[in-house]
Amino acid sequence: MDKQRDFVLRTIEERGVKFVRLWFTDVVGTLKSVALAPAEVEGAFTEGLGFDGSAIEGLTRTFESDLLAHPDPTTFQILPWRGDVDPTARMFCDITTPDGEPAVADPRNVLKRTLEKAADRGFTFYTHPEIEFYLLKSSKFGENGPEPADSAGYFDNVPGGTAHDFRRRSVRMLEDLGISVEFSHHEAGPGQNEIDLRYADALTTADNIMTFRTVVKEVAIEQGVYATFMPKPLVGQPGSGMHTHLSLFEGDTNAFFEAGAQYQLSKIARRFIAGILHHAAEITAVTNQFVNSYKRLWGGDEAPSYVCWGHNNRSALVRVPLYKPGKGQSARIEYRGIDSATNPYLAFSLVLAAGLKGIEQEYELPAEAEDDVWALSDAERRALGFGALPASLEQAVQCMEDSELVAETLGEQVFNYVLANKQRDFREYRAQVTPFEWRTNLELL
Asked: For a FRET experiment, which of 100, 206, 242, 430 has its CA 20 to 30 Å from that of 443?
């Protein structure tokens, strides 16, 4: 760590860095930033930077508000969009109390705690997110809602178009930040794009997602459009998900792979899937944390509404991708429930905790979904044992409220804050009188 700190301090001097931003998130997943002068960085390494935690959503209670932000030198990167004018760098932070204990409500620490539990069992958790978002002409909207930046569709190539230039610039900027990109393409909705990040350990991935969102927003501003990670910004168009590929490794060995097993899935992988399915409804208030998230989950367009798994079945909540012969190390599963607006630290914590519970308790994996689950009738789904995900944020919070797994994983403070925050969101949403009601009720009633 000392060598890494020395590298950071030397780079700041050699590159003429004028500001260093310290980044962390609140419980909802909003990125927080404080800029340090270069001369203050060494002190931040040794002592941390003090701030009022009670002013940050859910981070601490008022009577214990003093917290310290400790920059993680392994996350140091120079921000490419700042250019050569006042070069600026960033580091993610771990949050502690004044006596040096990790802050229980720091989302990054929640994930670290869960990863340590996995490590105690010999596992490293890897994730690979496919992040969807919309480019809009602006953040303003009229009677018909926001206006997408283009009218292209899935995999469309639009030479010289906004999306084409946008993705090229974004990918280059992400690579400059040390974030490897696997794919980028136009998605099915007008103005909708997807950029997939390469596999990394879950903590690195969560940090990368927070950086990714900032890069996408910055490039959009640069190109005169507006980027949104809202789960369902346009009526009648697909929502934006964050399908995430998951795997556990034991050292250099993929614990999900077993040659000769059905779909090459090991017993560990099958129990991990069973754990996710068993607890899926309980964790949905975090993986899909906004009222709008349920417009995506229940709006069709390949969003997973039902709790089931399938081999290469895109209508299932958990998909087992096609196995590539000779590539056992790439064995993985895909969780399709998470949307692009989640707090990745908390979402990855809960998905991992659910999977580990399945392994520990030796959950049995139910029969797979072989048909298009959306095409089945409710009676057929019931007969097959395919339950439904919560249909609203209110239902999701009710499922979470009784969950020992979520309470234990998040810790009491984060658990209580998320519950209160989401209950408030739904109360405010329910209190509205909407244009839909005016259109359908005003003259009729």
From this structure: 430
Same structural domain for residues 219 and 177? yes
Same domain? 44 vs 71? yes
| Claim to verify: residue 84 and residue 201 sit in the same structural domain | no
Other CB atoms within 10 Å distance of the CB of residue 300? 12
**SS3 of the chain:** CHHHHHHHHHHHHHCCCCEEEEEEECCCCCEEEEEECHHHHHHHHHHCEEEEHHHCCCCCCHHHCEEEEEECHHHCEECHHHCCCCCEEEEEEEEECCCCCECCCCHHHHHHHHHHHHHHCCCEEEEEEEEEEEEECCCCCECCECCECCCCCCCCCCCCCHHHHHHHHHHHHHHHCCCCEEEEEECCCCCEEEEEECCEEHHHHHHHHHHHHHHHHHHHHHCCCEEECCCCCCCCCCCCEEEEEEEEEECCEECCECCCCHHHECHHHHHHHHHHHHHHHHHHHHHCCCCCHHHHHCCCCCCCCEECEEECCCCCCEEECCCCCCCHHHCCEEECCCECCCCHHHHHHHHHHHHHHHHHCCCCCCCCCCCCHHHCCHHHHHHHCCEECCCCHHHHHHHHHCCHHHHHHHCHHHHHHHHHHHHHHHHHHHCCCCHHHHHHHCCCC
Residue labelled with tokens 């940050």:
56
β-partners of residue 88 are 19
Domain membership of residue 108 (yes or no) is no
Domain count, the chain: 2
Does pTM top 0.90 for this prediction?
yes
Domain that includes residue 77, residue range: 2-101
Same domain, 196 and 222: yes
CB 130 within 8 A of CB 244: yes
Mean pLDDT of the 192-216 span: 95
> CA-to-CA distance for 33 and 171, rounded, in angstroms?
23
Residue 442 located in a structural domain: no
Range of weakest confidence among 151-165, 168-182, 282-296, 306-320 = 151-165
Report residue 53 as tokens. Answer: 């935690």
The domain that contains 119 carries what CATH number?
3.30.590.10
pLDDT value of position 63: 41
Q: 327 and 350, same structural domain?
A: yes
